[in-house]
Amino acid sequence: MNEISASEFKAKCLAILDEVNKTKKPVRITKRGKVIAELVPPSPPKQRGNWLGCMKGKMEILGDIVSPATDPEEWEVLRD
Fold first, then answer.
1. Strand stretches in the chain, DSSP E
2. Which of 6, 16, 57, 75 could be a cystine partner for 31, CB 3.0 to 4.6 Å?
3. Fold entry, domain 2-39
C-alpha cells in the first residue's frame, strides 16, 4: 500500500484518485507521520437482475383486488 503525505495528496488529488481507480490499490494518507485516511477503490457494482417478475410466486391474491373496498353508497362525495 502506498503512503503519501497530506500535502502531496492535496497537490495531486485528482491524479491519485485516477491511479487508485485504475490500479485498484489503496493509498494511505499521512499527516506528520500518522495515518489519517485511506483511499480505497470503489467496490464493484452489484449485478442487477431483471426486476420485472421478481416477485412471481411470492404472494397470493385473496379476494377481489379491482372493486372498491367499500360500497359506493357510503362515499360522501357521490351523494347528491
1. 2-5, 27-31, 34-39
2. 6
3. YefM-like fold (3.40.1620)
The residue behind cell 464493484 is: 44
- What does pTM read for this prediction? 0.56
Cα–Cα dist 26/24, whole Å: 7
The pLDDT of residue 17? 96
pLDDT of residue 55: 83
CA dist 79 → 1, 73, 76 (Å): 75, 8, 5
Task: Provide the 3-class DSSP secondary structure of residue 5.
Answer: strand
**23-32: pLDDT as tens digits:** 999 999 999 9
Question: If you search the block for the grid coordinates 500518522, which residue do you land on?
Answer: 34
pLDDT band at 36 (very low <50, low <70, confident <90, very high): very high
